[in-house]
Design brief:
Blueprint (H helix, E strand, L loop, with lengths): L1 H7 L4 H31 L6 H48 L9 H24 L1 H21 L1 H48 L1 H6 L8 H48 L5 H42 L19 E8 L10 E8 L4 E5 L6 H8 L7 E6 L2 E2 L5 H6 L1 E4 L10 H6 L7 H10 L3 H6 L17 H15 L3 E5 L7 H15 L5 E5 L3 H4 L4 E6 L2 E6 L1 H7 L2 H22 L2
Parallel strand pairs: 3-8, 3-9, 6-7, 7-8
Antiparallel strand pairs: 1-2, 1-4, 4-5, 9-10
Helix pairs in contact: 2-3, 2-5, 2-9, 3-4, 4-9, 5-6, 5-9, 6-8, 6-9, 8-9, 13-15, 15-16, 18-19
């Protein structure tokens, strides 16, 4: 475990210094116990020999002062180390995840990252100090006592050593069981956390269903499951813990009996017997505390394992001499294949080839699961194609520096995330140095200015967590305004007008049209709404991961194929929505 923790930290020097300080304290504590032997031997004689005890008392006093100084130093060093270790781990994690493919950031992996940064990193830093220090003491003090006892009385030292072969497997078994129990408890606690978040987010639905106070059945099941796991864990850990305690107590009883027999037989003097019993207590007492520490040590080991699992995720490959600038804003696919489940899985794309010339605007059309979003994500290099080549600016995206590639690509996703900040700051994320005039021009083109005019504090209105204070269409306008402000020459839009009301659909379509009007910008948009399609000069129709139609919107309508049928259904559905809205009082 120490080796795993050591390799986990980017700069483990602090951990080594803290461990060395704790080790020095533990060894010094054992040596001070050794000083008791000559002191007791001199003072417990029929005629106490203070002269013989004096030098040892001086040595013991100096050692005690040194121990006190080191102990005082260890406390603030420990607290500082705990905070610094946690901070270093968090920074190490954040630096690493910034190198991972964007496709790695699924809901599950985001939850793993949040847990590692907020919980595991802090727990590792804290437990490495508050538990690691006592664990070092509980190990080194008995080892030092054995060494001292060998110098005083080898028979008793051998008795101490005889405890180890029984205590070691007992503590290993207790540790293994505690690790399994801790893992099960963590999984059950994670289930409760997920259900608790769901409980909070779904309050309107739950209250409407009369379950606002009790929550869903899944919430109740998670609570019951955690209780069952906790009880089962206590039962499982009870026997190994008691076994180890029994071994330690049996060792003390054995030492007590043997020492008493040797004392009554005259083999040991009273002073020696008392000193050996003191050493026996200090040998066995730290061992007894190990069973109390083992649960925390295993919890730290599990946390280390979770953090190591994140840090072991391979980063996005970067060539040794990457392309640092996108040339012409051209996008081309050449026989591209990709499967989310890896080789042998059903392909999301299968032999897809097309070219989007510089300055073109292309609509990606097709049924759900056709591979449209996969096309967009491969261009932005959320992940790499399994076969074929995705080329941007005439070069394979794998030849580009990832940061340089994304600097010239703007992505407008269906699920827009806004930071809990002002509208203006959410736009300036794209280009912090933008002038006020550039900001307003982007907002006008994205039809965002009319939204800002309705907000209570205008540009200074905070949008709430994730943009919750704005509607879906308003969030989309902010996202498109960011793309305009960024001035990226390649813009990828994923279902921006999906499930919007007609007014916002029209506004978002106008904003996409504003993106497409720039002759220096290449736009790919996943679209079905007629208003959005009207802004594009080319259409690619995908079905089952293949390109089945390609051409201008008018050409494909005239062809009477998939696109023509889809376009007709979309126009009918939109006409029906508009008629239904007109009939409303």
């Amino acid at each position: 475990m120490i080796r795993r923790l050591y390799t986990l930290l980017p700069r483990p020097g602090l951990l080594l210094r803290l461990g060395a300080l704790q080790a020095a304290l533990a060894v010094l504590q054992g040596l001070l116990l050794g000083v008791l032997v000559p002191v007791l031997d001199a003072l417990l004689r029929p005629e106490p020999d203070f002269g013989a005890a004096g030098p040892w008392l001086v040595i013991g006093g100096l050692g005690t002062v040194l121990y006190g100084v080191l102990a005082v130093l260890a406390t603030p060093v420990g607290f500082a180390a705990s905070m610094e270790l946690g901070a270093r781990l968090r920074h190490h994690l954040i630096r690493h995840v910034t190198t991972l493919p964007l496709g790695w950031f699924t809901a599950r992996n985001r939850a793993r990252l949040a847990r590692a940064v907020t919980s595991d990193a802090g727990a590792i830093g804290q437990l490495a100090v508050t538990t690691g220090g006592p664990a070092i003491t509980a190990t080194l003090v008995p080892a030092t006592v054995i060494a001292i006892t060998f110098a005083v009385d080898p028979t008793t030292a051998l008795l101490f050593l005889a405890v180890v072969p029984f205590a070691w497997p007992a503590i290993r078994r207790a540790g293994r069981v505690n690790a399994e129990v801790e893992t099960e408890l963590e999984e059950a606690a994670a289930g409760i956390a997920g259900r608790a978040v769901e409980f909070g987010q779904a309050q309107p639905v739950l209250r409407a269903a009369g379950q606002g106070g009790t929550g869903t059945a899944r919430m109740r099941d998670a609570l019951l499951a955690h209780r069952r796991v906790y009880r089962r864990g206590l039962r499982r850990a009870l026997v190994p813990d008691l076994t180890f305690t029994a071994v330690v107590m049996a060792g003390f009883v054995a030492v007590l009996i043997v020492t008493a027999l040797r004392l009554t037989s005259g083999e040991l003097a009273v002073a020696e017997a008392v000193a050996l019993l003191v050493l026996a207590v200090r040998f066995l007492e730290p061992l007894a505390t190990l069973v109390e520490l083992i649960g925390a040590l295993r919890a730290m080991d599990n946390a280390v394992g979770r953090v190591r699992a994140l840090l072991s995720v391979p980063p996005l490959p970067v060539p040794p001499d990457p392309v640092t600038a996108v040339g012409v804003p051209e996008v081309a696919f050449a026989s591209v294949g990709y499967a989310y489940g890896g080789p042998g899985s059903a392909p999301a794309l299968d032999g897809v080839s097309f070219t989007c010339p510089p300055g073109s605007s292309t609509a990606l059309v097709g049924p759900s699961g056709a591979g449209k979003s996969t096309v967009v994500r491969l261009i932005a290099r959320f992940f790499d194609a399994d076969t074929g080549s995705v080329r941007v600016g005439g070069r394979d995206v794998r030849d580009h520096d990832p940061a340089a590639l994304l600097a010239d690509i703007a992505v407008v996703l269906q699920d827009v995330y806004l930071f809990d900040d002002t509208v203006e700051e959410n736009l300036r994320i794209a280009r912090p140095d933008a002038t006020r005039a550039e900001l307003l021009a982007a907002a006008d083109a994205a039809r965002l200015t009319e939204v800002v005019a309705r907000l209570p504090d205008g540009w200074d209105t905070r949008v709430g967590e994730g943009g919750a204070r704005l509607s879906g269409g308003e969030r989309q306008r902010v996202s498109i305004a960011r793309a305009l402000l960024k001035r990226s020459r390649i813009v990828l839009v994923d279902e921006a007008a999906s499930a919007l009301d007609p007014e916002n659909e029209r506004a978002v379509a106008d904003a996409i049209a504003a993106l497409a009007r720039d002759p220096e910008r290449t736009v790919l948009v996943i679209a079905h709404a007629p208003a959005t399609l009207a802004a594009c000069d080319r259409v690619l129709v995908l079905d089952a991961g293949r390109v089945v139609e390609a051409g201008t919107p008018d050409e494909l309508r005239a062809a009477g194929g998939f696109f023509a049928r889809l376009d007709a259904r979309q126009r009918e559905a939109r006409a029906w929505r508009l008629a239904a809205r007109a009939r409303q009082p």
